[in-house]
Structure to design on (141 residues):
């Protein structure tokens, strides 16, 4: 077996110093630990490199964990997505269009996840009544 030893070796006239630390130690990472590390990327602007350095792993290891966790169904690239509640006024079960705001914000792309793995992509300026009809049509399909 290897012992903790420091050897001085002469090689071609110059001294080389090597350190033998013993048997290689591999860390075991549980899926929960991997998931926590992978999900910490982006929090407070943390990059993959910063997270890897913080946990003493390589960037490539984090990318590999992402891939493996995604295959196992434990991580989704959308895991960090923000979801906002959609409140639409309703009168007799039919959404009522809201009065336009004086200065409307620019349209934003929206993705709406529906049951059964379906999703709709639309602009934020879509009329609520049309959106409701579209959702019902996709759900019925």
């Amino acid at each position: 077996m290897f012992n903790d030893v420091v050897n001085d070796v002469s090689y071609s006239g110059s001294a080389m110093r090597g350190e033998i630390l013993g048997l290689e130690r591999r860390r075991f990472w549980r899926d929960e630990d991997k998931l926590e590390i992978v999900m910490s990327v982006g929090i407070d602007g943390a990059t993959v490199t910063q997270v890897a350095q913080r946990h003493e792993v390589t960037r490539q290891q984090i990318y590999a964990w992402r891939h493996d966790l995604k295959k196992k169904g434990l991580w989704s690239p959308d895991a960090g997505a923000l979801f906002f509640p959609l409140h639409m006024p309703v009168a007799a079960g039919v959404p009522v269009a809201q009065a336009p705001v004086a200065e409307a914000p620019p349209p934003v792309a929206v993705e709406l996840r529906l049951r059964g793995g379906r999703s709709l992509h639309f602009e934020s300026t879509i009329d609520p009544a049309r959106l409701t009809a579209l959702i019902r049509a996709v759900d019925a399909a």
User: Anything to note?
Assistant: The CA atoms of residues 9 and 16 lie 5 Å apart. The chain has two domains: 5-79, 82-140.
